[in-house]
Design a protein that fits this description.
Keywords: Heme, Iron, Metal-binding, Monooxygenase, Oxidoreductase. The longest helix is centred in the middle third of the chain and has 26 residues. This protein is an alpha+beta fold and about 450 residues long. It has 18 helices and twelve strands. The structure holds protoporphyrin IX containing FE.
Length: about 450
């Protein structure tokens, strides 16, 4: 490919290992260098496989929206996730995906999600009730536990804090899907410790979901509650969603919706802890809008809070890059990219591109109040028909939890303002992010 003049330019790495060494050391620096040296559509090699970085908003829009049929999720992703969620929304393609998305979508309509807000709020309040003036809190740990609790209550209708099956399986799936492993192209069937643990935890989780579904099916229709599990059980009964599709989707929501939301909150708290003025403005907004009694109707009014979350996810996108594979030869920004090429869409790089953002390294939530943003310069939830189905759920949850915290405590950062990050499955802090609480 590298000899084709119209193929995107890029460094030609060492044989066999390609640029893999650079990539695993610091993937963001690598993409930035690639952009600065070769442009926003540039190529590189991983283990002799051609890949292209796509960091140009117009090209991203073409891939996710305008010509989305020409780009698939890709063979490596499909193979890696086949056991856990091969029949679910995240992995399937074509008609099967379309059919599922249409059926599952109503479970994510605003009216339906509004009914989860009281549960989100009481979970958040239970977390905050354990806090005390002067306490130092590990933000990521706390937010991970809280979002898992929310997901358990709203998705399964059960308290998962007592039952480690769900959180352990979630950790095992995330470890298995770790991007470093992705790059190494290790076949999943090798009996490595990660793979063995993954298989065991996945079996336990699948059994847990099957049992929950069975119990739910036995109940009378009006006695089932309105968690996602019941809604999906209803779809299995009333439509052609198979039981495997049902189970894989429950696991998909768990995998896709848990750590991501916890990280969104973690980075919002990291930013706010360093910006006391922003924090005070948000507290005032929360107190004015709901005065300690937040309802679903209040959420759209928390505009500054929403902007702060958006800005934190610009600087620290929990999903910092994702992949597509070309289903045919395509033309992007004047280059020809052949069928079967892996494309990487790096949110981190695009969200901090100085050509697209003023003062890109600075936390400035008010930039989200202005309307003049270029499409696809910001895509923390992906875009086009395959955009995150849980986006509204996640935003509602993050706002509800933040409001609960802000109305009780102010907080300051007592750990490193620039924490080291790990580019794992999602963008994780490599060291604790800690805040000290002050009762309001
Ligand atoms: C801050 C939190 C979240 C972030 C940053 C996030 C990010 C994303 C991104 C970037 C995609 C697109 C992936 C791609 O196109 O390859 C996606 C898809 C998806 N997300 Fe989320 N997500 C979040 C929360 C959630 C939640 C709470 C749920 C479910 C309860 C969820 C369920 C899904 C599903 C099922 C898909 C696949 C949709 C499809 O292909 O039709 N996500 N998410």
């Amino acid at each position: 490919m590298s000899t084709d003049a119209k193929y995107p330019p890029g460094p030609r790495g060492l044989p066999v290992i390609g640029n893999t060494i650079d990539l695993s050391r610091d993937i963001f620096a690598f993409f930035e260098e690639l952009r600065d040296e070769y442009g926003r559509v540039a190529s590189y090699e991983v283990f002799g496989t051609d890949a292209c970085m796509i960091a140009h908003p117009e090209a991203i829009q073409r891939i996710l929206l305008d010509d989305h049929e020409a780009f698939e999720k890709g063979e490596v992703l499909t193979r890696n996730l086949a056991d856990a969620m091969g029949e679910g929304l995240f992995v399937t393609g074509g008609d099967q995906w379309q059919n599922q998305r249409t059926q599952v979508q109503p479970a994510f309509y605003r009216e339906r999600l509004n009914t989860y807000v009281p549960e989100m709020r009481s979970t958040a309040e239970e977390t905050v009730e354990q806090w005390r003036d002067g306490m130092v809190v590990d933000v990521n740990d706390t937010m991970t536990a809280t979002t898992m609790d929310v997901l358990g209550r709203t998705l399964f209708g059960v308290d998962v804090t007592e039952n480690p099956v769900v959180s352990e399986a979630s950790d095992a799936i995330l470890a298995k899907f770790d991007t470093n492993r992705f790059w190494s192209f290790l076949p999943g069937r090798l009996p490595t410790p990660t793979n063995r643990r993954y298989r065991r935890k996945l079996d336990e989780l699948q059994q847990f979901v099957d049992e929950l579904a069975q119990q739910r099916r036995k109940r009378e229709y009006d006695n089932r509650g309105d968690d996602l599990l019941s809604i999906l059980v209803g779809f299995v009964e009333s439509s052609d969603l198979t039981r495997e599709e049902f189970r894989d989707n429950i696991i998909t929501f768990l995998f896709a919706g848990h750590e991501t939301t916890a990280l969104g909150l973690t980075y919002t708290l990291l930013c706010l802890a360093q910006h006391p003025d922003e924090q005070a403005a948000l507290r005032e907004e929360v107190n004015t809008v709901c005065d300690g009694d937040l309802t679903a109707e209040d959420l759209p009014k928390l505009e500054q809070t929403e902007n702060a979350i958006s800005e934190a996810m610009r600087l620290y996108p929990p999903v910092y890059m994702f992949f597509r594979e070309t289903a045919r030869d395509v033309e992007l920004q004047g280059y020809t990219i052949p069928e079967g090429t892996t494309l990487v869409l790096p949110q981190w790089t695009v969200h901090r591109d100085p050509a697209l953002w003023d003062d890109p390294e600075t936390f400035r939530p008010e930039r989200f109040a202005a309307e003049n943003r270029q499409e696809y310069a910001y895509f923390p939830f992906g875009g086009g028909p395959r955009h995150c189905i849980g986006m509204r759920f996640a935003r509602m949850e993050m706002k509800t939890i933040l409001a609960a915290i802000l109305s009780e405590y102010s907080f300051e950062l007592v750990s490193d303002p620039n924490p080291k990050l790990i580019t794992s499955t999602n963008l994780r802090p490599a060291e604790p992010i800690e805040i000290e609480l002050h009762e309001c």
